[in-house]
Specification:
The protein has 242 residues and is mainly alpha-helical. The chain has ten helices and seven strands. It has a single domain, classed as Lysozyme. The chain is 42% helix and 7% strand. The protein is globular and about 50 Å long.
């Protein structure tokens, strides 16, 4: 009998949230609204891509349609519910690909990695090969390899933001303090801007140690038919700017 789906640990969710950010498409409203991400896909919350007629909803011309899918926006609690739903396929994928027992920290770090880089890339990676061979230390160091993306000229460059994320995922994988690694956020963002690379969750290409170009992560799940109720007044956390 197959094992039940494993929950993504809260520490991994907090790591993902800290790097994904939660832009607001309309800061003049109380709740969080859909926005166009740097590759032109309508997104809401922590990286939840909107889907219409089986495809990602794209382009500024679809602003009204995007807003109509979440009239009034969503709360932070609802944004986290969407994120948790989106992570289900990645949790299942990590459980399928890993052939060795994983503790919660290792599992969470791999889910974060897969959510960012894609399950297809994880499946081909040296990271997974080393993990399944029992080389935990070697697998941990492989997180650091996946820190490159193509800039506006198509040139592959190292991104400070991705480097910071991979270090945080490595730290979590090793049951270390990932928050200490994530403390240099603003400097990493400035360095990425200087490199001419959009600050996007979806990455055009990364390289493994074998030099294989990465594919984009698969599309996120479509919007659910219902959302959890909004928290009571006074309990909603403040939104932070990207």
């Amino acid at each position: 009998m197959p094992a039940p789906l494993r929950d993504v640990p809260q520490e991994a969710i907090e790591l993902i949230k800290s790097f994904e950010g939660i832009p607001d498409g309309d800061p003049t409203t109380v709740n969080i609204d859909a926005y166009l991400d740097p590759v032109g896909i309508w997104t809401i919350g922590w990286g939840h891509a909107l889907v219409h007629n089986g495809a990602h909803l794209r382009g500024a011309q679809n602003r009204a349609l995007a807003r109509s899918m979440f009239p009034g926006g969503i709360t932070r609690a609802q944004a986290e519910a969407l994120l948790r739903g989106d992570l289900i396929e990645f949790a299942a994928g990590v459980s399928r690909l890993a052939q060795v027992p994983l503790d919660d920290a290792q599992f969470g770090a791999l889910v974060s990695f897969a959510f960012n880089a894609g399950l297809g890339n994880l499946s081909k990676s040296t990271l997974l090969k080393k993990l399944n061979a029992g080389d935990v230390s070697g697998a941990a160091d492989q997180f650091l390899v996946w820190n490159k993306a193509r800039n506006g000229q198509g040139v592959l460059v190292e991104l400070a933001g991705l480097t910071r994320r991979r270090r945080a995922e490595r730290a979590l994988f090793l049951n270390q303090d990932w928050r200490a690694v994530a403390a240099t956020r603003s400097r990493a963002r400035r360095a990425d801007a200087d490199a001419g690379v959009p600050g996007a969750r979806r990455i055009d290409a990364l390289l493994d140690t074998l030099g294989e170009p990465l594919i984009k992560p698969p599309g996120r799940t479509t919007t659910p038919t219902s959302l959890p109720p909004a928290p009571r007044a006074g309990r909603q956390g403040r939104r932070t700017a990207r």
